[in-house]
Amino acid sequence: MGRPGQRPRLRCYGAVRTVTGSRHLLEANGDRVLLDCGLFQGRRAESRRKNRELPFDPRTITTVVLSHAHIDHCGNLPQLVAQGFRGEIVCTAATADLAGILLEDSAFIQQKDAEYYNRRALERGSDDRIEPLYRIEDVWATIDRFRTVPYHYETEVARGVRAVFRDAGHILGSASVGLTVELPGGGARRLTFSGDIGRKLMPILRDPEPLVPADLILCESTYGDRLHPPAGEQKQVLARVIGEAAARGGKVIVPAFSVGRTQNLVYFLHELFLEGRLPRLPIFVDSPLSSRATLVYRAHPECYDEPTKDTFLSAGHDPLGFRDLTYITSVERSMELNTLEGPAVIIAASGMCEAGRILHHLKHHVGDPRTTVLIVGFQAEHTLGRKLLEGAERIKVYGEEVPVRCRVVAMQGLSAHADRDGLLQLFRQLPEPRGQRALLVHGEPPQSEALAEHLGALGVEARLPVEGEPYEL
Ligand SMILES: [Zn+2]
Ligand SMILES: [Zn+2]
After folding, report:
1. I need a labelling partner for 439 at 20 to 30 A (CA). Which of 90, 248, 408, 460 fits?
2. Ligand 1: distance of its center to the CA of 68 in Å?
């Protein structure tokens, strides 16, 4: 037994019994490595408090290791920097680029949200005011701290602590991270952080790589008790829906997240186009953020899988661009779509119809029986997307009641997260699953607990961590 405090240990401070706010602290050799620094999302007051009050002093953090660019993993980095963090943020190059645009967007949303809140307070006659969680200047200071590392390249992140990134196949640049801690008295302990794990056979991205074997595995469990239909089948649904809408002379309106989902859809559409299975009709991606994210996807072909290289790159094609596809950034061009005659496909954000340009398109088209709204992602409770999915006869957009006369089609199976079997596979691939220790995070308790049970059947000692408790490696 070493002296107390000498063994490296891990504490989970977010994504515990929930899916947002990923942040975990590794203490080793007197240094502190923070894994992710994500934003909590949910009820406003509670998330504001959790995002604002960090459970550790940012000035004592040596380095941040970032798994990927989703806002629930990187979204609170500007707050960490604003409160005095002065180390490096280590991640892949694609993650650094995507995080840059997503954090700028997040700062903009924070500012709008604070303005809205303060305006409402004023109307109520209250002098309650809130400040945005962070500002664009904080984002720029954060971007300055990124240090990028290629996949499979071992790099030192703290005294005697090395990290290696492996492709997690979740979004562009996403990684699972293997960390090795050299102990002062000799020997080493190892921790592997799964990040968010993607799926096999998804467009553009490689399949998730096996995890680096370790003494302790910190693993996501978003869909610990669910099985997804194969992603490839979705392409057939897409072809059918567009074919039918074109025959009726209607529009296909697709609410989609800007990063990942939009590019997957474009990829499938491009394949269908090359296969001659799309009717001749204009396709629009109407979102400045999606357009910027697509530029990042184009800038990182090193992240593409073999089919993408074979089908597109080797033939000189851009996988994310083709004759009938137009990316729209300007407001004027976006407004012009409102008066566009004839069939068309319009992909716009936000993915759950809570904000963004998708609202204009819904307002103009859901009353038309020739329209199809194609739902391609998860729709949380109380969102407009969920209401459409549940067959609402009227919806409220910008304070105006609009009748719903269109068709609503749900396309499941485009999730960017591994399902139960995908997660179990990661443990089956380990040299010795039996006796493996695992902490399950990034999941609602029913999902995480179900996964723990399935892992138990493999001999893995899996449990849900208690927030802030130390776990020795
Ligand atoms: Zn993610
Ligand atoms: Zn996540």
Report:
1. 90
2. 7
Angle ∠(299,300,306) on CA atoms, nearest 5? 130
- Domain 232-410, classified CATH 3.40.50.10890, yes or no: yes
288 CA distance to ligand 2 centroid (A)? 23
Q: How far is the CA of 442 from the centre of ligand 2 (A)?
A: 7
| β-bridge pairing 407-410 and 24-28 | unpaired
Measured in angstroms, how far is the CA atom of residue 149 from the centroid of ligand 1? Answer: 19
CA–centroid distance, 251 to ligand 2, in Å, is 32
Q: What is the pTM of this model?
A: 0.93
Least Cα distance to 139 among 87, 76, 92, 95 occurs for 76
Pairwise CA distance, residues 290 & 22, whole Å: 24
DSSP 428: H
Nearest to 33 by CA among 41, 45, 24: 24
Taking the CA of 15 as reference, the closest ligand is 2
d(CA 362, CA 430): 47
Q: Which residue has the tokens 């499979």?
A: 152
Q: How far is the CA of 125 from the centre of ligand 2 (A)?
A: 38
- 95 C-alpha to ligand 2 centroid (Å): 13
9-226+416-472: in CATH 3.60.15.10: yes
Q: Which residues contact 178 (CB under 8 A, 6 or more apart)?
A: 163, 164, 166, 190, 191, 192, 211, 212, 214
- One digit per residue, pLDDT tens: the chain, 473 residues? 334 357 899 999 999 999 899 999 999 999 999 999 999 987 778 888 999 999 999 999 999 999 999 999 999 999 999 999 999 999 999 999 999 999 999 999 889 888 988 999 999 999 888 899 999 999 999 999 999 999 999 999 999 999 999 999 999 999 999 999 999 889 999 999 999 999 999 999 999 999 999 999 999 999 999 999 887 788 999 999 999 999 999 999 999 999 999 999 999 999 999 999 999 999 999 999 999 999 999 999 999 999 999 999 998 899 999 999 999 999 999 999 999 999 999 999 988 898 889 999 999 999 999 999 999 988 877 889 999 999 999 999 988 999 999 999 998 788 899 999 999 999 999 999 999 999 999 999 999 999 999 999 999 999 999 999 999 99
3-state secondary structure of 364: helix
Distance in Å, CA 417 to ligand 2 centroid: 9
Domain boundaries, the chain: 9-226+416-472, 232-410
User: Which DSSP string corresponds to 121-164?
Assistant: HHHHT-------S--HHHHHHHHTTEEE--TT--EEEETTEEEE
